Amino acid sequence: MPLKGILSGVSAGGIFSAASRRRSDGGASSMSDADKLSMLDELEQTGLGWFWSTDAKGTLTYLSETIAERTGLEIGDLVGKPLASVFVSKDGEGRSKSLSLQLGARKAFSGFAVSAEGAKREIVIRLSGRPAFSDDGSFEGFRGTGSDITEEYHREEETARLARFDSLTGLSNRHRMAHTIETTLTAFRSAKRNCAIMMLDLDRFKQVNDTLGHAAGDELLKQVASRLQRAVERDCEIGRLGGDEFQVMLPDLDDRGELGEIANKIIAMLTQPYSLDEGRCVIGASVGIAIAPHDGVTREEVVRSADLALYAAKNGGRGQFRFYSGDLANEAIFRRRLEGDLQEAVREDQLFLTYQPVVALDNQRVVALEAQICWNHPQRGEIDCDEFQSIVENSSMVVEVGEWAIRQACEEASKWPDQLRVNVNVPTKQFTSEGFLESVSEALKQTKLDPARLELEVKESVFLGDNNAVDKVLGALFKLGVRLTLDEFGTGYSSLNYLRRAPFDSIKIGKNFCPTSLDTGSRELGLIKAVVALARALDMTTIACGIESMAQNNAVKEAGIGSVQGPVYSEAVSGEEVHQQLATGNWAIEPSAHHTARAKRRTVLRKIHVIHEDYSYEVTLRNLSKTGALIQGLDDVPLATQFVVDLGGGQLAVATVIRAAGDTQGLEFETPLVDDGAGGLCTRHRVSPYDLASAGAPLAALSPGNYNSMHGGMPKTETTVPKFTYAPVGSYEAH
User: Fold this and answer.
1) Is residue 400 part of a domain?
2) Residue 16 CB partners (closer than 8 Å, separation 6+)
3) Widest CA span of the chain, in angstroms?
4) Average pLDDT, the chain
5) SS3 call for 39
6) β-strand pairing of 483-489 with 454-459
7) Helices 150-164 and 174-191, interaxial angle, to 10°?
8) pLDDT tens digits for 66-75?
9) pTM of the model
10) Are residues 317 and 382 in the same domain?
11) Where are the alpha helices (DSSP H) in 47-173?
């Protein structure tokens, strides 16, 4: 159809309504049709207005050549095709369907952003149109206009993207993550589906910003985002909430074994060294995990649960993951109370030291003892060094506790043989505090300990502060005669520059260089050999820590390491045991494959329920492993009896009695338990709260009652009397 034929229809946009009618204004002459066509041709050429028309079937009968030119397509390839196939909506499938519906409904439309199908050059067009009818009312097709809005469209698209995504990392931002989690959980509630939420926090990120600058911090965050996307190899949504906080949503995943593996992979990948323009750095990561609907139903509930789990992971020593459990809120409150109790602990002599031997590899003699702080809490009982360290590092008492440790270590070491040194870890906050030098000097003076027998271990993070102040303190300690060890070399901001200028006597190699799988052909061993060569060139000795196996021990010995410490020789021992060993003469320890690290886990001596047929019995859980448990409290239980063990919070494990003696039974789990991230164990899956509710059971945990109606639970049977009898009262009480 020629342009003249569509003049009466293009008035949909209002541009040509005045030009298509005769005007009479004070005798002014009307515009001729030739003038109108000339004006419209010029308008088409400028690109300010384009025109199109279709027949009654929706087939293009006219299209301004300028549109075809800008798309790189031939006008002959476009005219004669259906309009809805020539132009594809930029707003997704839904708008494309709406355009077809509009044409079919013969209604006017405007503002449809489209692009030409198969265009050789990207162009975005805004289409408007209205139906055309003949004088007798017959539908003749559509007449419309178009305009190039490519730049405007991309500006709006970028604005919309910035509103939803983090401008630095490209990940979803806080607003988009909140919306995505909200809509996902709302949809999943009706479908009774699971969804896991991970909260991540970077360890030591602030130190990068403070020392290497914000540009380095920004680049580091970009690399973290890239590693996160590679670490989670499944459908998920990853977002940066701001600062160094990240969030991951994993739909349809409640397998805590798989979630633990993902969390460990994330932590391992984020802990690997980063290369920045400003230098090399190493950070860490902690992860908290919550699963809907077990740990909450709404977004606020699940995110709060994941936050509590993250808080517990950071307090547990960082660089680890934790699943949410119902007692974490109480644990967080109790931990804050413990931090508040530290002042009284120092004043009331509740703290005490244990010592881990440092053994010379050439003759297995104990050459030093590393002091580790423990706490004999009046209510909690003994708090070991790992847990104590996680409490004190976030406390305002870190300096006071550190000063106490040095004084106490010097006091006890003064009673040891002259050739035996004592090693004390110095937190960075204590090292950079006012009065640190004076406190060390005073401790040596009061105890009359030879300064050469005190070895202070400092981490690489001390070099993140004022270089002049750090050099001054190190120089003063050197003049005082105290030995200095660079602790956990390779886990922070390793620099040959500060090794060259600092008066260190020893380098302690961190556990990241000494993995459990370390052997004589590993790449890590090559790194250890390089560190040993570096230390020798600088006249320093080397110590490897965390040695747990004979293979590790043999490998570091081959690498030339001077001294080692770890479970393969000895765990930390009490001060009394130190004196007993020293009383026998020269203290030497042979490495042994039978020496293994003690498992650190929560006390399992607690009441639980076991379900048999349609009855629930309360018993005492004596111990727990991945493959089984020991329960006490029932008499006359035959072998091969099957129980469903209720560990609380919807954790049900099918188990078979494989040993029985009186009121005690040994159970073997049908499906092994998995690591809960805190040194304990948990079931891979939990019974959905929806199923518990439908069975009439409480959502938090099962209670005694009838379990026949539980989905996936025990088979339905007729109600019977209990099969087993309780042991005499008091015979299985926890001691």
Assistant:
1) yes
2) 7, 10, 40
3) 128
4) 81
5) helix
6) parallel
7) 70
8) 888 888 888 8
9) 0.59
10) no
11) 65-71, 75-78, 83-86, 93-105, 150-164
